[in-house]
Amino acid sequence: MKMPVAFKSLLAVTALTAACAANASTYALPQGAPGLFQVSSNTFEDSFTFNVTSLSSLVGGVGSRDLDFGFVTVQALNFSELSLTGPGLNVSYTGNAATFSATSLGVGSYTLTIKGAAPSGGGLYSLYGNLAPVPEPESYAMFLAGLGIVGAVARRRRKSI
Questions:
Q1: With DSSP H G I counted as helix, E B as strand and the rest as coil, what are the percentages for the chain, rounded to 5?
Q2: What are the tens digits of pLDDT across the range 103-131?
Q3: Which of 101, 111, 121 lies closest to 44 in space, CA to CA?
Q4: What DSSP letter does each residue of 29-78 carry, written as one string?
Q5: The whole model's pTM is what?
Q6: Alpha-carbon dihedral 29, 112, 27, 38, rounded to 10 degrees
Q7: Does residue 23 carry a pLDDT above 60?
Q8: Spacing of C-alpha 3 from chain mean position
Q9: How far is C-alpha 34 from the chain's CA centre?
Q10: Under a CB-based contact definition with an 8 Å cutoff, are residues 9 and 68 in contact?
Q11: Cβ atoms 101, 140 nearer than 8 A
């Protein structure tokens, strides 16, 4: 027995709705692979928390696009503000920002807050963040010292031949 396309589309929307998290909540920041989040009202404000254990930098992005299921179209979300708060840090991006970055984040807990509107009264967005440690000056000093030793050994071998 074949199912009508509209019924299949309705099942897909229901599955997406059930699989996604609700809006206006606090989540852990998805690292690496993007996380998918649902908005079920005209406006939303979601917060994502993460901990930094050593000097680090953060690069990430947020995005939404129109979804067409044949019988219904869900418009992309409009992001009005992204803010990053933490120890000694309070950064805001306004407008429909798609990417964000912060360098030299110290040790502590941080919160990324996303605010926006849903023209269709709901929708989906994806978010990812990559937190990478920043090398300390001692690392660069050790690298240069090692490079110098390798150079000295190579020079000495060349003279002895």
A1: 25, 45, 30
A2: 888 889 999 888 888 888 888 888 888 88
A3: 121
A4: PPBSSPEEEEE-SSEEEEEEEEEESSSEEEEEEEE---EE-SS-EEPPPE
A5: 0.65
A6: -100
A7: no
A8: 37
A9: 7
A10: no
A11: no
